[in-house]
Amino acid sequence: MQPIWGALVGQSDAVEKLSRAVTDADKIRNGEPGPAMTHAWLITGPPGSGRSTAATTFAAALMCPLNGCGTCQICRMTPFGGHPDVQIVIPSELSYGVEEARELVRLSAFAPIDTPWRVIIIEDADRLTESAFDSLLKSLEEPTPHTVWVLCAPSVEDVLPTIVSRARHVSLRTPTTKDVMQLLINTYKVDPAMAAFAARASQGHIGRARGLATEEASRTRRQSDLRSAISLRDVPSCVLAAREMVTAATTAANTRADELDAKEDEQFKAAFGIEEGSRVKGASKRKVDAAKKQLADHQKNRRKRMIRDEADRSLVDLLGLFRDVLIVQVGSNLDLINQEMLPAIESFAARGNPADTTRTLEAIEHARASIQAHTPPQLAVESVMVSIKDPKLASVHVNMR
What we know:
This protein has helices spanning 12-29, 51-63, 73-77, 98-108, 130-141, 161-164, 177-188, 192-201, 206-214, 216-229, 235-271, 282-330, 342-350, 354-372, 377-389, and strands at 40-44, 86-89, 118-122, 147-153, 168-171. By secondary structure, the protein is α/β, with parallel strands linked by helices. It folds into 2 domains: 3-171, Rossmann fold; 235-395, no CATH class. The chain has a 5-stranded parallel beta sheet with strand order 2-3-4-1-5, covered by helices on one side.
């Protein structure tokens, strides 16, 4: 097995399938049969399972002369979107529209620059609108010989059947706590005790585990969210806890968005040859102004999506917490996600019952769906906090429309 596949933690079946495809891709280029390779792939798996890593690793292995040596420029550049023959598409808004899809179809027709393949990776393909899917359909049915499409989504059910039927499916699983822990220790040189905590707390989400293991701010925010949820006294405290949670999520999202915006602004200036303090006039100014507005709209929509995603991350932490509460209440021997909070969890569990906790878990899941359906995070999280304080109110949900 080539070294580059080591980036896929606990995914032996997927690695075998993709590596065989890489081998057969070489056969196809030499005019031989290569049944393990195809031009359209669908990679599915729960959040944090490594869908993006699988897609970019596959792309790098396809283009690497040694099928994924892990050390050449192609292998090093591709995972970070730095190779010109790999297009990594990440939604900046809540969904992909038909215009974005048409642009990808246009790009797919271009020949690769210095490798055998042009790979187009669509992350969060479940956010493609039906009209966007329709725009891609012909390219998936009749791809150019050099183009490989890789779509990533949480599950097959999230993608239109017409797309699924035209793509080779690769399923990823949630990595085990042990797998994630070893990755943190071996790759990121994290202390074993910290790696064990981050692997448990992340619930198998590799990116989340890396953040918890290496960023004190992430650990502090998570701890604050969990402590607040089991310390509610009355309705005003529910509103306050929700506000603090969403504010922290918004701050984290804005910090990341500011970094991305600054990088894009510099790239924009370089693309149009704009120097600090210079002015653009005439037709050129109109062109620059139009492009600048398009970039600003893109950044605004991305920021909104990132805030929603950060709020969802906090709710996933709450799911883990109340799963632990339920485990204690029913006397199960399952390991706790939040073992370090055992005394507080036991105290909270003693004040309720499994039925109440189940209603709370359902309320959290409903809030997650509400946020993705455009409900303001503040309202969705407030409904969760009230449900935690009084589980009988868990049936009073925020209107998802």
